[in-house]
């Protein structure tokens, strides 16, 4: 009886579309149709839950280690300490950039894909953003402030770190396995990635943007 009433209620308001015309089923026709269906069909109300055959998978990458508030603060403090030394404004944390960094770490090779953001990468046997930023800044040794075009290729992480026009930063870290063909089954390392917006290391004729954005350190 419950099934019949439910069918009647649904059939009463059912719209049939024929061409561009709309037709409403009358209550009398709905009663007759409901009686037929209730007696011939094992009717059940729709179930909202997904069928068992549909697998729901998480988009989260198990290799990604979520950053704590303390780690984010450390990243900002280290960056902004060096940036202040080179007269660049402090960076602000950007959650979107952090998520994009996680995505870029999907195959453990972030530079295998192009990006609209600046990127610095660091790999170590443990999670250590302090060491990462210190390592990036150490590339100042290869940077030529008088003629940026003569800077070594290994100075790019330094120039991105202190690039004056960059305003936002987001970082992520992922545990990645080395080639496991060896007898030891490979080893794990942690790939650190920070993204910057607007990006640095923008090459122009005569390297004018480098001269405007990568300034010598303040004299102490």
The Rg value, from CA coordinates, equals 30 Å
Number of DSSP strand runs: 6
Q: Helical content, roughly?
A: 25-40%
Shape, principal axes of CA atoms: globular
Return residue spans where pLDDT drops below 50 for at least 5 consecutive residues. 1-59
How are the strands ordered across the major sheet?
A: 3-5-6-4
What is the averaged pLDDT score? Answer: 78
Alpha-carbon distance between the termini? Answer: 89 Å
Tell me which oligomeric state these chains represent.
Answer: single chain
Brief digest:
The protein is α+β, with helices and mostly antiparallel strands and 220 residues long.
Please render the helix and strand layout as text.
Layout lengths: L1 H11 L2 E4 L2 E4 L2 H14 L28 H17 L6 E2 L1 H10 L13 E7 L4 H10 L17 H7 L5 E10 L10 E10 L10 H6 L7
Parallel strand pairs: 3-5
Antiparallel strand pairs: 1-2, 4-6, 5-6
Helix pairs in contact: 1-2, 3-5, 5-6
Pfam family, one: CAP
Keywords: Signal
InterPro entries: CAP_dom, CAP_sf, CRISP-related
């Amino acid at each position: 009886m419950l099934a019949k009433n439910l069918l009647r209620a649904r059939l009463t308001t059912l719209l049939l579309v024929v061409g561009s015309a709309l037709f409403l089923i009358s209550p009398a026709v709905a009663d007759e149709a409901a009686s037929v269906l209730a007696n011939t069909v094992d009717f059940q109300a729709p179930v909202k839950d997904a069928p068992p055959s549909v697998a729901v998978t998480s988009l989260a990458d198990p290799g990604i280690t979520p950053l704590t508030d303390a780690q984010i603060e450390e990243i900002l403090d280290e960056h902004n300490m060096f940036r202040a030394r080179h007269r660049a404004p402090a960076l602000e944390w950007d959650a979107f950039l952090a998520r994009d960094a996680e995505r870029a770490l999907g195959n453990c090779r972030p530079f295998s894909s192009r990006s609209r953001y600046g990127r610095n990468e660091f790999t170590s046997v443990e999670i250590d953003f302090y060491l990462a930023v210190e390592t990036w800044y150490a590339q100042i040794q290869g940077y030529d402030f008088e003629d940026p075009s003569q800077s070594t290729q290994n100075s790019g992480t330094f120039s991105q770190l202190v690039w004056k026009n960059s305003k936002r930063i987001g970082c992520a870290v992922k545990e990645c396995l080395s080639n496991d063909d060896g007898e030891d089954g490979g080893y794990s390392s942690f790939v650190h990635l920070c993204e910057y917006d607007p990006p640095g290391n923008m090459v122009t004729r005569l390297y004018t943007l480098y001269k405007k954005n990568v300034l010598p350190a303040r004299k102490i």
